[in-house]
Design goal:
Distance between the termini of chain A: 46 Å
Number of strands of chain B: 11
Oligomer: heterodimer
CATH architecture of the largest domain in chain B: 2-Layer Sandwich
Bound molecules: zinc ion
Structural class of chain B: alpha/beta
Shape of chain B: globular
Strand content of chain A: 15-25%
Largest sheet of chain A: 6 strands, mixed
Chain lengths: 343, 240
Amino acid sequence: MARNLILAFETSCDETSVAVIEDGNQILSNVVATQIKSHQRFGGVVPEVASRHHIEQITICVKDALAEAQVDYSDLTAVAVTYGPGLVGALLIGVTAAKTIAWAHNLPLIPVNHIAGHIYAARFVQPVEFPALALVVSGGHTELVYMPAENQFEIIGETRDDAAGEAYDKIGRVLGINYPAGKTVDEWAHEGQDTFNFPRAMDKEDNFDFSFSGLKSAFINTVHHADQIGETLDAKNLAASFQAAVVDVLADKTVKALQEYPVKELILAGGVAANQGIRARLQNELQAFPTTELVLAPLALCGDNAAMIGAVGEVLYRHNVFADASLNANPGLEFEWAADSEC
Amino acid sequence: MKILALDTSNQPLSVAVLVDGKMQASETLTTHKKHAEFLLPVIEDLVSKSGLQPAEIDRVVAAVGPGSYTGIRMATTFAKSFASTLDKELVAVSSLLALALNIRAENVLINPMFDGRNQNMFTGLYQWQNGQLKAVVEDQHTNVNDWLDQLTEFNLPIVMVGEIDNFVEPYQEILGDRVQVTEGLQNIPNAALLAEYGQQLEPIKNVDSLEPRYLRLTKAEADWQAAHPDERGGNYVEKV
Ligand SMILES: [Zn+2]
């Protein structure tokens, strides 16, 4: 049988990535050029700067990905690309390069949703079994996605304001941690205690939505108030208290979702899925769901990368989901809401 | 030689196919600024109507800036992806020079311009010399008053071309009747002329390192540099 080889592109934020994926689950190459150092100068991603870096890197990443995978264009089955959600100028570099290369080599073009990509990073651990539920947590997204069958994605809950990762970066700044702050806050949290008891927003509400802006404000107010009265708070306890509030809400909503949507797999995905606090808590909670298996995206594939886009690309290829040369970036791309969930 | 030329620097989108010096197909759209949606379909259509496969094209000629940042990235991303993936020649041309090609007169100075808003402009000064369009003053992002100061140094007639509407008055005030105003269609770039002119230019050596000619730092980088005068930049992107 012929190999299914997908050349995949991901440029939705501050990583330029190109990968070659075989049969949707084997990484032949996954080249990632990260711009973190550049955006650290500004304390967060500057969209125009991101677009400029993507165009510097894009063709180099393609060449490296093909060389590392030891394949040629004639071996490829299709080209897959993230077309949303993300930063429009950044997405457009990947979309334009992918369309150009697909046209130049007469290959089919597959449009991939970035969030589906994060979820399918789990495919490199084990096959996705349906029905499945995914908790996607990153700097740009916090959502619960129900997947009744392959290539079906339904949102059942999402953040009403900040993404969890965004809240991590903002409170990190208050603690003097350089962007991106998630990893350091996670480490400090493990050395501190939850002594501040920050609010768990929407935790008891009868829906699967999240809110992190109240928590962020409570955190910042606590620190500012202490500053004003000349008191110094324990940074590790602050980190632990913040993380405990985030993890409580994420875990409680996920458990509630699992009760309403019994699934074979729960997938934890997205940049914040690398957080040890969240991983440990979900492992614990899943003991109450013996027929649901917890699949944690591999640590190296939690952040943005093209391998995960290729993993979805293979699914879409089998479902005949193709785009033509007019494919545009869609910065606000979203899955449909589940029919029976109120929003 | 089979040439594909494109310009998406501003509102107009222009694409042309030239084979052995003869124009095969060309299209210019000014109706939308949806270059992301239209660029590849127009290219596909014109190349196919020219009876060519993508791999048969020998050279791509692209206007790579200055202009709208998104616009110049569109043409540059296409051009470098195409040239890199098929190992073809790539000629990168100033978007201002591409516009100046519309004016064929000798013994005048051609002054292409894009409106940068708030009295600012992307502009340069060109002159035909032995069939070559030479830059007399390099492309720059500048204030119209500073630019007019530079123009007073020259004595030849100056032909304004491009996004000229907001600048005609100050030009006439400072330069008087040396100013010539371009009307209508000649203010829109024409990829067929770009393809023709691009035949004689040297292709760039390292396609993968091609970047658009923004002529301006982003505001974030400019502010950062002002606050960190001793930092020497360096490599901000790393393979992981
Ligand atoms: Zn992401």
